Amino acid sequence: MLRFVLASLVAGLATFSCPGVATAEEPVELERALLRKADEVLKHLRQKGYGNVGILKFLVLKDGKLSDSLGTLNLDVAHWLQNALILKDRKYQLGIIDRASAVASKLTGATYRTPEGRAKLFGAEYPLGWGDGDKAKTVTPDAFVTGVLEVSANDPKVVNVALLAFDRDTTKLEPFVVFQAAVRPALLEGLGESFVLRGAFDEKEARADTPLADKVKTLDKAQEKSLSYNTLVAGAEHPLREKGGVPVALTILYDGREQPVRFAGKTAFVEEPRAGQRVEFVLTRDASRVRYGAVLKVNGENTIRRQRQDALLCSRWILDPGDKPYTVKGYQIDNEKRENFRVLGLAESKGREMSYGADVGLITLVVFREDYGPALPESANDEEKEVVAVRTPPANPAEAKGSAKTFGALVSGLLDETAQRGLIEKGEVAYSGVTQVTFKPYPQPIATIQIRYYNPSYLPGQ
Q1: Mind listing the pLDDT tens digit for each residue in 385-434?
Q2: CA angle 184, 450, 252 (to 5 degrees)
């Protein structure tokens, strides 16, 4: 299917032969695979003589359908590749454009899916990720890179990836790197999928004296079963509709009233809040003896410190066995203060859509269980640090205070990161005391629940 789709996309080519996908090595997660392919990508772009290159959001091929707005993954992968190229281009031999899709989304008729649309993408100035002082340098792109991700029902453990490029001279879309990456639960989150690992953690596995090897075996078996598109995605209901419940339930309140969750296929949604309504979220854990860490995001921002990183890197609400339901009333700024949620009016909501990107209007709950195994190493190797940097999300354009002063500062910054319609935003500051505790999560989440509450007028990117 990927070969057929690529052949259809590559307009103007008489014939097309998809390069073989290397399978000698065990596929790694997508972020790591992009990092390892970055040198090959840079070499190709330099050989072509390109000076400034933008990365556009990817297409995702799933269930035989090609989409540029399936979930946050379309834009996420473009940003991961952008970060990977910056990290590997240490000598600054190539100008990497910052968030090219954000500019492209404003160009009428611009799209990489047709030759005419590709030509229009070159009709604007794009910002680099660095510049002089607070002023980012803008450039005219020489070429763009995008890609296609194929989620296969026949091999649910891997995703096929093809990188494509085109330049201003010919606007010919050509594939130049093809590889495979491993499917992980975090990848399903980006595809807009909700899931729960059923039966993975009973009370025996939660006990601290259970051998770690036994826990890992149980977890691996559950993940292998749950990551099958035949059992999880292709035929399963949304987890909120399935029997057996979820480890941590999420209740959404507007002015103290619980909002019913409705379903359209595998998508869960609630009604949009009205401007000025009080919004709260209640986290209710199950009766097991497992200690949970829950990451709750609104519009892609964590409700603790407004973090935009991968859920594994975010601070978590800790739910101990026997804990009563906990109400999240806003974005926790520090141990003593929070910014209460505020619902924006129609005009202000539309103005904020671009700032949040593909996460706009999305409530995401990611649940981790505590890892009772040996402590994680205090210092990671260079590749582990770079993988974390690849996942580092872009700054919120509405709050950014300018680009990095130099290319070197940009690289260092990445490595240092470990009726009326309404968007939910930050509001007034209130006192809210919380206590920091130690919690080491098992790296793979056991549940991801996504609920849409706001339908944007557009999704940015081309």
Answers
A1: 787 777 776 654 444 444 555 666 667 666 654 444 465 666 667 677 77
A2: 150
Residue type at position 406: T
Give the other-Cβ count within 10 Å of 126's Cβ: 24
How many Cβ atoms from other residues are within 10 Å of residue 325's Cβ? Answer: 12
Q: Find the largest Cα–Cα distance for the chain.
A: 66
Tell me the C-alpha distance between 262 and 269, whole Å.
Answer: 5
* Other beta carbons within 10 Å of 77: 26
| DSSP one-letter string for 182-234 | E--HHHHHHTT--EE-TTS--HHHHSTTS-HHHHHHHHHHHHHHHT-IIIIIS
pLDDT tens-digit map of 180-205: 988 776 666 666 667 676 554 443 44
Identify the burial level of 255 via C-beta atoms within 10 angstroms of its C-beta, where 0-12 means exposed, 13-18 middle and 19 or more buried. exposed
Provide the H-helix boundaries in 69-173: 73-88, 100-104, 115-120
* Closest of 150, 146, 131, 179 to residue 75, by C-alpha: 146
Structural tokens at position 178: 């093809």
Task: Say if CB 300 and CB 72 are below 8 A apart.
Answer: yes
Which domains can be identified in the chain, with CATH numbers?
A: 2-189 (3.40.50.10610), 197-452 (no CATH)
Given a contact cutoff of 8 angstroms between Cβ atoms, the answer to whether 359 and 7 are in contact is no
